[in-house]
Amino acid sequence: MSKFGSASGTQKKAGEDTMEDLEAVNLAADWADISQGLRKDLGHQLHSQWIKPIQVGGLDKETGTLALYLPTQFSADWVKDRFSDRLGLAWKIACSDVRRVEIEVHPGRRQVADLRFHTDGRRPANDGADSSMMTIAADTIGDAGFTSSVGLDPTLTFGAFVTGEANVLACNAAQRMAAPDKPQFSPLYLKGATGQGKTHLLHAIGHNFLTAHPRSRIFYCSAERFMVEFVQALKSNQMLEFKARLRSFDLLLVDDIQFIIGKASAQEELLYTIDALLAEGKRLVFAADRAPQALDGVEPRLLSRLSMGLVADIQGADIELRNKILHSKLTKFAPLEVPEDVLDFLARTITRNIRELVGGLNKLIAYAQLTGQEVSLQLAEEQLTDILSANRRRITIDEIQRTVCQFYRIDRSEMSSKRRARAVVRPRQVAMYLSKVLTPRSYPEIGRKFGGRDHSTVIHAVRLIEDLRQRDADMDGDVRSLLRQLES
């Protein structure tokens, strides 16, 4: 009897697990639709910062309450204050079982590092890999090297950072900041759009600095976490300890400094910290999505400190850099092969930021491996529709012709004229080449936009410019410049 009872219980448990899995899948699908709608309403930047990190928890069927989790109390409070009603309404429309939403910190989230001052000079124990504010000291380094337990991602090193014209200045400046010799400038301010490599360079600086200065102390945090810890220190009357600990570090790394906007007391404390560390010859690195002068609501004194060293701009990656990055990521998938036309398609199409580019490659390869299919252009177009549609900015042949004519300083009418002068023919061929690379138009369609020329003329132009780019550095430079202009 117990035997049959046990089997029945097992079957019941399996059924319950299956139902829970199905509910989780349905909730995830609903959230994907809601999130996509919010991205259209709020814009990419606001959505990426506050909505995208939300994780869907369980649904209490009795009360109709759905839990939505965020990684920090600060972000949970921020989203709750501004988007609670909108999220609740969206969920009620998407899922009839949901009557209300609760926005809170994920219960499994590890607490950030304890910032209390220790008179013996040693940092408190901290093994939280997902903490956004970390203290790093020599006693956390083992023979095996750096691990995530010290707050630095072991994969984000200078060796893994692919450089090109868009980011070489920032990378070289970051390496100088981490070198054994005293840097020529401090602070270093890394400026770049979301997903272009700022955080990667911050982690890389931390790794190299610890290698060069094994007994050094590093402080790495986001501006958001800096403010949270500052407020907690105020409430608990521990400001003296907070200040003493903050100013004991040899290297200060602060990410997303734009989020310290409008916080007067936190700005003042950061200002005093910068002055104290600079006076002692310490090193400081900040990262933000805009230049110091574009930080609204920041005290002029703090702005002057942020921009007094070197402001290194990370431009959007051009197509050559995007291709290099994709090829560098393929090494971890060996011996799997990805056709060159697929890599070229991803590099040409996913242009907004490097994070999305690498994410698209990872998703494509994972799908191919899990389904046993070969990676192909068709598979990429089918499986990456969301990423591709979000990135695809439709560049027209008219736009290409206008840009090429401005670049070479010729009249727009020359794109359709019958003139055969070299000063006119070469720009026209470049425009045909770019039309084939940047638009989905066929050879005959391109020919019609260039004065009704035959498709064979367009094919000849495309092949000629491809060949010239390999042999002529000036031509290659011209095409690179035009690609950057058209894709920006």
TrEMBL record:
Domain I is involved in oligomerization and binding regulators, domain II is flexibile and of varying length in different bacteria, domain III forms the AAA+ region, while domain IV binds dsDNA. Signal peptide: none annotated. Oligomerizes as a right-handed, spiral filament on DNA at oriC. ATP binds at residues 195, 197-199. InterPro entries: AAA+_ATPase, Chromosome_initiator_DnaA, Chromosome_initiator_DnaA-like, Chromosome_initiator_DnaA_CS, DnaA_C, DnaA_dom, DnaA_N_dom, DnaA_N_sf. Belongs to the DnaA family. Residues 184-316 form the AAA+ ATPase domain. Its main location: cytoplasm. It is found in: Cytoplasm. The gene is dnaA. NCBIfam families: DnaA. SMART domains: AAA, Bac_DnaA_C. Gene3D superfamilies: 1.10.1750.10, 1.10.8.60, 3.30.300.180, P-loop containing nucleotide triphosphate hydrolases (3.40.50.300). Residues 369-488 are annotated as: Domain IV, binds dsDNA. Pfam families: Bac_DnaA (PF00308), Bac_DnaA_C (PF08299), DnaA_N (PF11638). This is Chromosomal replication initiator protein DnaA. Residues 1-124 are annotated as: Domain I, interacts with DnaA modulators. Plays an essential role in the initiation and regulation of chromosomal replication. ATP-DnaA binds to the origin of replication (oriC) to initiate formation of the DNA replication initiation complex once per cell cycle. Binds the DnaA box (a 9 base pair repeat at the origin) and separates the double-stranded (ds)DNA. Forms a right-handed helical filament on oriC DNA; dsDNA binds to the exterior of the filament while single-stranded (ss)DNA is stabiized in the filament's interior.
